[in-house]
Batch of 2 targets.
Target 1
Amino acid sequence: MSAYSRSETSLIGASLLRKEDARHLNGYAQFIADIKLPRMRDVAFLRSDVAHGYIKSIQKPKGYEQQIYIHGDLPIENLEAGPELAAFRTSPYPPFAHEKVRYVGQIIASALAPNRAQAEDLVEEIEVKIEELPAVVDVKKAIDADAPRLFVHWPDNLFIKARVDEGDHHQLRSAPIRLHRQFKMNRQATVSLEGRGVLAYWDKRADQLIVHLSTQGPHIMRIGLAQALNVPQSKIRVIAPDIGGGFGGKNRLMPEEIAVAAMALRVDFPLRWIEDRREHLMASVHARDHYYDLIVSADHNGRILGIEGDVFIDAGAYALWPTGSFMEASMAARNLPGPYDIKNLAITNYTVATNKAPMGPYRGVARPGACFAIERLIDEVAHHLSKEPIDIRRLNMIKSSQFPYQTVGGYRLDNGDYQTCLERAIDLIGFNTIRDYQKSKASSEHVRRGVGFAFYSEQSGHGTAEWTKRKSRIVPGYESARIKLNSDGSVIIHIGAQNHGQGHETTLAQIAAFELGLDPHAINIDYGDTAIAPFGFGSFASRTIVFSGGAVAKASRAMADKIKKIGAHLLQTHDQSVFIKNGFVCAEHGEVSFSEIARAATIRQELLPPDVNPLLEFTLTYEPSESSGVFSYGTHAVVVDADQRTGNVKIIDYVVVEDCGVMINPMIVDGQISGGVVQGIGTALFEEIPYSDNGQPLATTFADYMVPTASDIPTIRIYHMLTPATTTEYGVKGVGEGGAIAPPAAIANAIADAFREINIGVNETPLTSQRIVKAIMVAEASQQEARRS
Amino acid sequence: MKSAPLTYQRASALPDILSGNSEMNSMFIAGGQSLLPMLALRVARTDKLIHIKDVPELNVIEETAREVRIGAGLTHAAFEDGRVPDEGAGLMRDVAADIAYRAIRNLGTIGGSVALADPAADWPLCLIALSARAFIQGQNGSRDLWVDDLIKGAYETSLRDGELITSFMIPKLPAHARVGRCKLTKKKGAFSMSHAIAILAPGYNKAYISGVDTRPLLLRSTSEALARDGAQINLADVIAADLSPYLDAQSYEFRMIHAVASDAIMQALSK
Amino acid sequence: MTAIKFTLNHEVCVGDVDDRQTLADFLRDQCSLTAVHLGCEHGACGACTVEMDAQAVRSCLVLAVMCEGKTITTLDGLADDRIMSELKSQFHLHHALQCGFCTSGFLMMARDILRRNVSSCRKSDFVREELAGHICRCTGYNGIIKAVTETAHALLATQIKSA
């Protein structure tokens, strides 16, 4: 069978079928829970069932004290997390709760046993007394002067308050149109199908702590573990196995992981913790949870003049290492202008501490919230002016002639054609046909059809300039690649990024193969083991194809140059008169194989040119020439049918027109978009962890926490535009997150459109059937009120 | 999420179960598709699990001209696949095929669903709508009663300690009975928010709904109006009259559940 | 603890199990059949799907002790199965997997629906409904649906019936 899903001749842009598929299709993959080591024991945690309280006593069961750990039993250093900003308040996040518990699910103690079931039995024997305190659950009330305080040494429950102020917002007060709206995106979890997991032991032979960790960034986690455990990095090896999804949820060093590693230093056997689904929903990285209170100002035509207001981020009880969650608030504010030519932005953003699990990054990070806010505001302005939302978008969209465009949010939008993108989506979704269909339906019909649009841009491949702007304590400003040609001519490349489903073993092999004139199947891409892989930051923020792709290209070219130099020498000709083809260095009069060249460079160095060192191995780093990021973008257009009696929403059609620059492997790009869209649909319609007034999470299993499955989504139609980036290798841009950014906005707009005669408020995700019916009833009631008066 | 320690006993005959074992806390398990998650989450606990799936009395399939007698241990898949005689309108088959997912249906049992009496469960609603009877065996002998009397409330049945449901008797529906059904869920296969079944036949006009009360609710005025007025029924009003003792007429629940009832009945009327 | 004996991937399997142990944990831990994945342990995600007496079941919702005398097949036991082989090719061709964690469960369930109803599996709406109980977070499902419908077409074209 062909190795390509479509007929291709060039490797750049080839839909090469994935090299990593075989192990998953045949059951040979090895995820963290699949690793079996002799004498391995399992860890279970005692977790707080109270959201906020003082720990008064912990009683270990008699006879089992050696198998139970609590705060103070193990030396663990605090890891300071958050941006390097004096204004950002820090507080220790001890892996085992100390003095206070601050969220339901926070770890109080651990129990070790021969298997997980017995460890859970043992956890039940631990007696804990907690003096309960009132819980801080509402993000706005949390910053009231009289709110109970999570950290007594803080003046209030704010990690940080910051301001984005661009343009002249005073002039906005006299704008002809000023609409005040609130938007809420509710808390959810990341829900990788494989939960988190860690397996750690002290390897006596190697005199090292070995930590198998389901992570998106093994090198970074190693730094954190070394600091927390006060062990030199040279004595810690982190190995990432196959990862069953991450989406950001495996890109922070979490208390369980530190606890297990610390316990492993104390005991004589391997220790394992495998997260279960309830733990994941309760205590893993939480996400979204934004509240926007905004005023949009516009002129009579609908030209948006500015956005003012407040953004609240419910960041949970602690800052996760290394970043904390200020990034969420800052990105939410800075992304509010969206793709529109808006000159004024005045936003106060609050990163609030509450008695909930800590917030971390999840596909799109703050952008789904910001996109929801701006795209809904566009539709609200349109509705107010009795205009079509697409016309307001057309009026305000950044024009191609304006690129590179510096937004008031501080982003340098590099290039693209936003207007054409919008027009194509309008055409492809069949806008006019939908309007005709809507007109043909009686208003008495239960089911209403609506069409909605949303535009997103996705900052990707951003490096030093952007991360330093964010005051990151770790600046992922480059990626590395080590390429080796073995003595038989086979190639292996080690990278510092961390594939967790994105197909890097394939796409990066395509790049190397392109540069080296080889078959991609002759090139191994390897990663995940800090003992072997060159230092790198991991995979997140849609960075890998830009950074690792660039590093692999650079290293492959360095290799190609040396191969040619040696080959030319062996062919007794000039460097400039040889070329590479199919694993050979060729000259007019002859050719020499890579394996012969590798043999010379490795075990027969007398054959080398005099000025050339042995070995064919390069470790290089790469950063794009413009490190403020390259911006993918796209329009999502969605058609829904909504039942006005039950609030049931069915997605009839979904179109994505997107531009991520040059695509190394279009099949893999489509897969990323498709997966992102469905996660976005999850945020839009299904996923939520509500909290009770006393801080109890109310969705802790899949019985209550819904995620989209195959029957909830239609075929997603994906179309591409191609504006190559000008500052990256091959013109690539990142694409991993974009699919998840726009769906909540597009779907909300479609539902609003379905009921546009009654102007319902669709301003809170997930748009469950209950919320939709409530919104319809509120709108119907105010219409009746209006008619009466 | 591993269950607390327990011991397992497989019963192959009814006397094994009924001999009683009062020293230990015990539970019956047939399909386990509801019980095992509860045990794994440790929200239910037992010292002993008695596996009753293989007991012959729980697997009977008998059919006469007037009724169907089926074992409580029959799986939802058995109904879905048509391996169980029908009550005459394909209702049981239709209900079964819409429960959860196929892999769950291969093991989950009709008796387990009724004995658990989850207010969102489908079989209690269906069997009550069909005026089915349940046959029960216990240490002190056997008895039978209407499923309508067996289901008392949320997770509450009139089963006594040590009793189990062995089989159900379902009267066949009259010829040309028209059946309608509407289930509202957050997503396919999830527990229902509300589920309505309407049966229209000469002398038998019943509409039942779950998700309103703690047990399946007879829409009494609606059923009477269907008998009296048939297709001329003022459906919106009678459903509203039946729901208003339980739900605030201005609430979104009322609106959604009203639609579920209405759709089920309209479906039956359209046949 | 209870002694059990059953057929596993065409061979006799004997074990001594803790009564509370699920079939999923037994297969993974005692039999090292780690293609059986745990995504939720409460029967909601489908990642642990295996075949028991020719029926698809969620192995996290079966106790190991309940398998006495039964025939269990996991992905590892279907390497020579014609439907499974076609499915794997189509999954590969249509990019129906990314991280791979849900893949074995989807393959097991897809094979089951193809065995029971290959003709209807040519329609994507049918396949969507049949696979509605399986969670994938990476692919967005369309590649999986396409792989299954294409398998149905391929099987019907060659008129292969499973043993």
Target 2
Amino acid sequence: MFILLTLWRVGDFIDWSSQTFIDKFSNDFESTYQAPVDECVQANRLDTGFFGGQGIYCGFKSVSDKFKLEASNKIQEVLPSPHSELVIGMVLGENRFKLIPTYNDILKTVGLVHVVVVSGYNISLVFTLLMRLLGSQYKIKNLIIGLFCTFIYSGISGFGVPAIRAWLMGSIAVTFKFYGRPTQGTKVLIFSALVILCIAPSQLFSVSFLLSFLATLGVMVVPEALGGLWSLIGVKGKVGLFEDFNTSLSAQLMVNPIISYYFGTVSLAALIANPLVLWVVPLCTMLGGALVFLAFVSPLLTKILALFLYPFLDLFVSFSEFFSGFKSASLQIRFSFFGMIVYYVLIFIAIKLFSRAVRKR
Amino acid sequence: MKLFPYIIFVVGYYLLRMLVSLPQSNGFYISFLNVGQGDSFVISIPNYGKVLVDTGVDYQSNYLSARASPFPVCNIKSVLITHYDGDHAGGLERISKFCRDITVYDNLSNGDVVDFGSVKLYVLSPPRKNSTHQENDDSLVMLLKYYDFETLLTGDAGLSVLGPVSKIINNYKDKGIILGGLDVYKVSHHGSPYNNNKSLVDILKPKYCVVSVGKNNYGHPSKKVIQDLAGAGCVVQRTDENGTITFTSR
């Protein structure tokens, strides 16, 4: 891994701050990183092969699946549906919405299905908590423990592309920070993509991979260009909802052609719904994490915390149901492959031009 | 992180929920929940609690019944399942996880009376005990009586069931158990033309007819059914158009 670090030179800078919005734009929860359950069962590795290759994975998966099931059952005792499924998705990346297809459709219609994916925010949250517990992140032992635990966490979530990408990016960023080397976000993103493609080249054609990387790229490079566009038409605003709108629009601009090409729909409601409800996601993830922990410790404390968490989840559920009710919430548009390529060429030219204009100013 | 705004939000949320749910919380009402293509009704019974009839497809009955109270606690005491089709019982597993101490009634038959105090449920069908409740015609058909307020709940019962049911209702009328002149008639099988018993509607003369229906590919509710109901003088209410429909009685 460190051979490739020559991609960066002294003076490069990794912008890690944007990772809180990391790509929650995956509609496809299937990942080729997950060995199919049947494969694990058929190979009968759960009992015999714990110490080798797929056996380790299957053994780990069996334990993490049991943990997730147990956690889900406990959360479902204190929160109704779909609130409990939201918590499980946000904290453990477990998509239980397939069991409640009506709400799954609502999330797709309003473009909010990405919140139930473990990604950059979750990984950085777990890492930060660990560092608070262990002390300084500038000690090699702490750093290794932090990276190992976040890797296990991404494994518990099922080794989805967003989690793996976020873990790779985070690992590079903190390792660079440890050695006092500045890094640049887009380069780390490209490096992470290359690593994943080296391990699993078929990911290049996976919707999950494409959405995850394009959304992150969008969040990194589009806001600056959008800033140029807004100032050109005289719109000013850099805080709160407008900033969330900008971030959401940046990701949407990058992922919508892919979603349209593969699924034949484009969510218009996503542009409004995302800025209005995304502020509750970090809070729900944090409180949800505490809820999962308490569920194994004290039923009473779990109920008390659930009382505090419920209003935020209910706001999310109410907004998503409200916006999905509009007839034009989701449009049936299917991009052709050629149309998609033309779109991306044009959008990258526009980003370049507007960003250059902003820098000149 | 500044906690104060979040605490204000939480307190404000619960105050608002209390204001919204208090007027309904103790009295009698029956709510036909908007659960899409499926059935789910909440009956609020004074001095007993809430009874859920059917659970809809997946999460909605759990969510909507939890919303009936300001706090995220289970307020359902009993569940009646008319039959085990997904659109009637799909949410039962979810409900039973959130509500640990509920009583589930799923093995009732003609002649049984479920007594909830001020509310009585007269079971009119299926005719035999130990029905599997797997088929539409095994659906529980029940007459709900709260003083002079009467509602007929039909599940997905077909014509072969609704025919004998009209005779049973006539017997009950003769015995003075029920008054007749129904207040609410839950239209069978989401308004399917194959479950349309016009003579039953003519006998019962319901004031309101509720069709519990959502987006579907079956053509529910049938135009003919709606026309027949309106022709019998019934005000037709649909959950897909009117949302959750609630009837109260004092």
